[in-house]
Design goal:
heterodimer; A: alpha/beta; Rossmann fold; B: alpha/beta; seven-stranded mixed sheet; five-stranded mixed sheet; 14 strands
C-alpha cells in the first residue's frame, strides 16, 4: 500500500530485524494487549447473542491499532475513545467487567475517568476530538508533559468537529494525536462516498500538521508510528494525524448485515490480515515467541473474560433515585426522591 | 446610608463592566481559570466584557480562539480534564447553536457519565436577547434550549451586582453553567458594586420588589420592564411583587410557590418564544403544586413563536409595559 508504514508486510528479512529491534518484551506486551481486546470482543459478541448485553459494536480487526495506541503512550497520557474503543480502558488496568456493564446498560459501566485517564466513551463520532485537543492544550498551559490521543474512523473525518479539532490543535500547538482508523466503511458508506481524498493522512496538510500512514493490521508498525507521533507531541512538535489503513473485518455492530452493501469476496480477501494471527506468524518466524506461549497468553485472556461475564449477572440493579443523584454536584430539588416523579397528590389517587 | 462612602471603596459600574470585573476577580483568585472566546483578547470582546484582561493576565489565560464554537466549547471540556477551569465566551446568542451538540451530548452529561464523581468547572457566557437593533441571529433568547438539557445550570443576571456575584458563584459551583447575559442592559446604567464580588446562592430567585396582589416573574432584561410595570400598577392601586428568577435551571421552587400563595396571581414575562418557554414551566409548576391557591390563571407575556423579527419590528415582538399591564388587568379582573 502506498506510503503505508509496515513491519509485518515488509520482506521477511526486514521484518525479522525490525521485530528484533523492538525486542521480545515489547512484542509480547503488544500481543498480550491484543489478546485481551480480542477476548473482550469475542466474549461481548457471545453475550450479545445470549441476550445478556445490548447491541454491541464489535472491533474485531481493530485490536492492533487500539493496543498500539495504549502501549505507545504513557499512563499519564489521555485517551479519548468512541463507542468502538470501549475496551481500551482495560489495557489501562480497568476490569473488563466495567465496559461489559456499560453494554449491559448498567451505570456500573462508567469507568473511573481520572484514574485511568481515559475519557468517557463518546457516541457521536468526531465529537471526542475537541476534548482531546483541550486535554492536550491543558498540558501545554500547565507545563505538564502528557499528550492526548483521540480516536476517529474514516467516517468521522467528514464531520465538522474533526475539522475544528484539527485546526484548534494546530493553532494552539497542542500535543495531540488524531488516530484515524480508516477501515473503509462507515456502516454501509464506503470511503469513496465519504471523501474525494484517497489518503486521509493528506488532510493533515490543510492544518499544517504531519500526516502519517500505517498498516492497521500490524501492531508493531502501529506502535512505532504512534510512538513517533507521541514523541513529537511531547517534545513540543504539536499535533499529528495518523491514518491507520485497514478494512472493517467484521460488521459495524451486532445489528448490522454487511452482505446488504458490500461484497463477501472483499471480506474474504481481507480476512487473512486479522492482526493477532498475523502478529503470531511474525513473532514465531522471528523466533521471538513460540506458538505455545502465545496460545497460553490468549487462553489467560479468555479465562479472564469468562470470569467477568459470570460476574456481570451479579451486579445489583441501581435505582433511578441513585442515578438522579449523579447528575449535579449539588442535586437540585427536582431530582430529589420527593420530586423525581409526579407530585405526591397525583400518585395518591392510585 | 448615613455615611458618605469613599469613591474608591465602591465603584459605579454598568452590567458589562461588572462582568469584566468579575472575570478579573476569577482570574486573580483561581490560577487554573482561563478565558476562551473569539476576539476576547486585545479587542476585549465585541461587548468589551473582557476589556483589559489580556493585558493583565496574558494571552494564555485570555485566549483568542480560532472560529468554531463546537471546537472551542469541546476543547473547554478537555481543558477541565486537564485540571483547568475555562470560562468561554460565545460572541452572540445564536452562535451558541454550533456548540449545542457539545453542550447537550457531552458537557451536560459529563458528571452523570462518571457516576457523579467528576464534574466540569466550566462556564459558558452568552450575551443574549433582543432590543439592540442588531442583525439577524444576534437577538435570540435561547434559554429554554439550555434549560431543557439535563446537567446544565442556566443563570441570568439582571443588574451589575447580580451579574458579578452570580458569575463568580457560577464559576465556583463545580458544574457547567450557561450564563446568559442580557446584552440589552449591558450599559443601561451604573450602580455601586463592591470591590470584590462575594458568592451568592446560585439557585435562588430574588424578590426585587415586594407586593401582595400579583407577582411578575421575570429575568434578565425583563426585570427592568417588570419593575416599570409594577410602578404603573401601584399607581392604579395594585401592589405587585417582582420576582427575578436568576436561575432558570434549577428553578427556585420555594420562591415561586410563595409568590403564588402570598399574591394569588403570577404573571410570567420573557423575551423567548411562548411555546415551551420558561413561562410554561412556571405555570405548570404552580398548577401541579398550588392550583388551589391561585386567584387567577397564570398568564404569560412573551416573545412570539416566530424567528425574532428584523429590528424594525423588534419592539412589536418584545414584551412591553403595556402588554404586561393588560395581562395583569385580565388577572385582577378574573
Amino acid at each position: 500500500m502506498d506510503g503505508v508504514e509496515t513491519i509485518l508486510g515488509a520482506d521477511p528479512e526486514a521484518m525479522v530485524s525490525q521485530l528484533l529491534e523492538l525486542g521480545r518484551d515489547l512484542c509480547l506486551r503488544l500481543f498480550e494487549g491484543m489478546a485481551g481486546l480480542r477476548a473482550f470482543d469475542d466474549r461481548a459478541v457471545i453475550l450479545q447473542r445470549q441476550g445478556r448485553i445490548g447491541t454491541y459494536p464489535t472491533f474485531y480487526g481493530e485490536e492492533a491499532v487500539q493496543t498500539a495506541s495504549v502501549v505507545a503512550l504513557e499512563e499519564r497520557d489521555w485517551l479519548f475513545p468512541t463507542y468502538r474503543q470501549t475496551a481500551v480502558v482495560t489495557l489501562r488496568g480497568c476490569p473488563p467487567l466495567v465496559p461489559l456493564l456499560m453494554w449491559r446498560g448498567h451505570p456500573g459501566g462508567w469507568h473511573d475517568v481520572m484514574r485511568y485517564r481515559v475519557a468517557p466513551v463518546c457516541v457521536p463520532v468526531a465529537t471526542n476530538l475537541p476534548h482531546a485537543v483541550g486535554a492536550a492544550w491543558g498540558a501545554r498551559l500547565r507545563s505538564a508533559d502528557w499528550v492526548a490521543l483521540g480516536y476517529a474512523g474514516d467516517g468521522a473525518t467528514s464531520a465538522g468537529d474533526f475539522h475544528e479539532a484539527c485546526n484548534l490543535a494546530a493553532v494552539t500547538g497542542s500535543p495531540v494525536i488524531f488516530l484515524v482508523n480508516n477501515n473503509q466503511w462507515a456502516i454501509s458508506t464506503p470511503l469513496r462516498r465519504q471523501t474525494r481524498v484517497q489518503r486521509l493522512a493528506e488532510k493533515a496538510a490543510a492544518y499544517g500538521m504531519p500526516g502519517l500512514r500505517v498498516d492497521a493490521f500490524d501492531v508493531f508498525a502501529c506502535h512505532r508510528v504512534l510512538r513517533r507521533a507521541a514523541e513529537l507531541a511531547r517534545s513540543g512538535g504539536g499535533p499529528t494525524l495518523v491514518e491507520a489503513v485497514g478494512y472493517r473485518l467484521g460488521p459495524h455492530g451486532t445489528a448490522d448485515e454487511p452482505a446488504l452493501y458490500r461484497s463477501p469476496a472483499a471480506d474474504r480477501l481481507w480476512a487473512p490480515m486479522e492482526p493477532l494471527g498475523r502478529a503470531q506468524l511474525g513473532l514465531v518466524s522471528a523466533g521471538l515467541a513460540d506458538a505455545g506461549e502465545l496460545a497460553e497468553i490468549r487462553g489467560r485472556a479468555s479465562a479472564r473474560l469468562l470470569a467477568a461475564a459470570e460476574e456481570l449477572e451479579r451486579s445489583p440493579r441501581v435505582t433511578l433515585e441513585e442515578i438522579a443523584d449523579t447528575v449535579h454536584l449539588s442535586t437540585p430539588w427536582d431530582l430529589s426522591p420527593d420530586h423525581l416523579r409526579e407530585p405526591s397528590w397525583a400518585a395518591a389517587g392510585e | 446610608m448615613s455615611e458618605v462612602t469613599a469613591p474608591q471603596a465602591t465603584q459605579e459600574l454598568n452590567l458589562v463592566e461588572a462582568v469584566d470585573r468579575a472575570l478579573g476577580q476569577i482570574l486573580e483568585d483561581d490560577p487554573q481559570a482561563l478565558l476562551l472566546g473569539e476576539d476576547i483578547g486585545a479587542n476585549g470582546g465585541v461587548f468589551r466584557a473582557t476589556a483589559g484582561l489580556e493585558a493583565r493576565f496574558g494571552p494564555d489565560r485570555v485566549f483568542d480562539t480560532p472560529l468554531g464554537e463546537a471546537g472551542f466549547v469541546g476543547a473547554a471540556l478537555g481543558l477541565c480534564l486537564a485540571g483547568l477551569h475555562p470560562v468561554v465566551e460565545i460572541q452572540f446568542d445564536a452562535f451558541s447553536y454550533p456548540a449545542f451538540e457539545q453542550l447537550v451530548s457531552h458537557v451536560g452529561r459529563f458528571r452523570w457519565r462518571t457516576g457523579g464523581h467528576y464534574g466540569l468547572r466550566l462556564v459558558v457566557r452568552v450575551p443574549y436577547g433582543g432590543g439592540t437593533r442588531a442583525p439577524e441571529l444576534h437577538s435570540d433568547s435561547p434559554e429554554t434550549l439550555f434549560g431543557h438539557v439535563p446537567g446544565l445550570r442556566v443563570v441570568v443576571p439582571s443588574d451589575p451586582v447580580s451579574a458579578g456575584r452570580l458569575l463568580v458563584s457560577a464559576q465556583g459551583c463545580g458544574d457547567p453553567v450557561v450564563f446568559l447575559e442580557p446584552k440589552r442592559i449591558y450599559r443601561r446604567g451604573r450602580s455601586p458594586v463592591p470591590e470584590r464580588f462575594g458568592p451568592t446562592e446560585l439557585d435562588r430567585a430574588a424578590v426585587v420588589r415586594d407586593g401582595d396582589d400579583l407577582t411578575l416573574v421575570a429575568y434578565g432584561a425583563m426585570v427592568e420592564l417588570a419593575l416599570a410595570a409594577a410602578t404603573r400598577l401601584e399607581a392604579a392601586g395594585c401592589s405587585a411583587r417582582v420576582l427575578d428568577l436568576r436561575s432558570l435551571y434549577p428553578l427556585d421552587r420555594e420562591s415561586l410557590l410563595a409568590a403564588a400563595e402570598e399574591t394569588g396571581r403570577v404573571l410570567v414575562v420573557h423575551e423567548a418564544p411562548r411555546h415551551c418557554g420558561l413561562g410554561a414551566e412556571v405555570a405548570a409548576l404552580l398548577q401541579e403544586e398550588v392550583a388551589d391557591r391561585l386567584l387567577a390563571p397564570t398568564l404569560r407575556v412573551t416573545g412570539m413563536n416566530m424567528p425574532f423579527p428584523l429590528f424594525q419590528n423588534e419592539d412589536d415582538a418584545l414584551p412591553s409595559v403595556e402588554r404586561v399591564l393588560a395581562a395583569a388587568q385580565v388577572m385582577l379582573d378574573y
